[in-house]
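User: Predict the complex with flavin mononucleotide.
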Amino acid sequence: MSIPVLNLAARPLTILFATETGHAADLAEAAATLALSMGAAVRLRDLATYNTAKLAGERDILAITSTHGEGDPPESAIDFFDFLDESELDLHEVRFAVMALGDSGYDEFCGAGKRLDRRLAAMGAARLAPRRDVDVGEMKPAREWLATIVRRFVEDQGSPRGLAAGIEAGGLAHAAGEP
Ligand SMILES: Cc1cc2nc3c(=O)[nH]c(=O)nc-3n(C[C@H](O)[C@H](O)[C@H](O)COP(=O)(O)O)c2cc1C
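Assistant: Here is the predicted structure with flavin mononucleotide placed in the model:
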């Protein structure tokens, strides 16, 4: 009989992305693959369909969003951004990092990522790393930054309070593959 080995002690890592032309999704997938290879419990979610009722139960969030229009989120994620602006959720138990994709040729460079980073912090979440703004053509350094951040999330399991919170949130339920 084979017994599945799951890391119950770990804080599950939720990787959220918002994209229009696929770059943020590609990066998010690469980050999820790396985290899985490290044995982490990972959930990969498109903000277009993310269930916001889950947000307060998250513990570690890595968010990757591009910017479109004139400093706006991708069309598919506008509802999520609006929800965040209006939400009074307390995210003090959450750690997060934001990668913002953009094009410095636009006035509002990485506007959506800046907005997301600002809002998560205002809701009480703790920044695991400063926001990383990525200009077009910077995909290689972007991947390197993501690898560093994924390692930090997975290897630094935080305080005992963080550990307890991770178990409460249901490490098993957050294992990769859960819808
Ligand atoms: C129509 C359009 C509008 C854009 N507007 C902005 C903008 O206002 N600010 C910015 O930093 N980047 C802007 N961008 C650049 C994208 O954010 C960038 O190309 C990004 O890598 C796209 O990622 P995605 O494929 O995940 O959507 C725009 C791109 C397009 C095509």
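DSSP finds five helices and six strands in the chain.
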